[in-house]
Amino acid sequence: MTATKKPTKAKAGRQRKAKVEAEAARELRLVKEAKIQDLIGDSAGTRLEASGVLYHDGAFLIVCDNLTSVIRVSSELSPKAPENGVLTRGKGKKKAGSAAREGYEDLAHDEARDHYYTLSEAERVKPKGFRARVQEYDAKLRPIGSAHLDFDLADANKGMEGLEWVDRSGTGHLLALCEGNLCAGGKKGRTPGGGRIQVFRRDGKRWSHTATIRLPKSLPFEDYSSVSVRDGRIAVLSQASSALWVGRIDTKKWQVDEGTVHRLPTDSKGRTVYGNPEGVSWVSADHVVIVSDRAKKGPGSARFRGKDQSIHLFLIPGNNH
What we know:
The chain is mainly β and 321 residues long. 8% of the residues lie in helices and 43% in strands.
């Protein structure tokens, strides 16, 4: 039996260097970022648990999972921009059957009708179990109605996290991203390889489940926090993994390709500093906007606080086509 030769120190060094360079090439490049409160003041309060973002009409719309307000900020991320402010006002309140506060996990926009949709992660439904709820608004963000998504969830705190609107041959569909792998909670939900996006179509006042999009088994994400689709490309964000997956989507078959994982920038020691990324939206062919939730208390989250409750504009290297 022939023994396997160990690589020389020089070769091992070149391999490590190549690996580092490859990882650096796939790292998102920060263009600009700002604390949301620095942009809008205290108009929405001082606790801004940003959970979803939508780029529309030259501005960013932001929702928080502790507020029923919709925040707008200039795409320039300037505190002096006149469009900065709160479009709808509301304070979060305690949800029955959940430890969370009532707010929104994400938002989506139907270009054809100029309607908006917000997502509530999970609500208790009779006789048992949970379902996510979608609220619909007109072009001026006036509420029109709401309905549950026709998909059962086992866990109130591991429900739907991302929402996107996709037009398929003239029919609109909502894409809802499960937070946990295999749409589950606990250890099963944290085991990579089971990313799922559920597809829904309007059926009267209901949102009927019509298909499931399976994300690549090779995707190493422990959780999923937001989804955005633009021109046949799809971006999926993970908070726990502090990374963004970018691929192509076939809406006729509801399938995606293997795509590429891009990590969010790290510090000089290679440690995670973007510890709370919760929402993502395409801005252009090679730029995305991401918003970050509030960091948890305690010393373990100290290095995340510089980036929390913020909005970040990133360039995706090599993704301009």
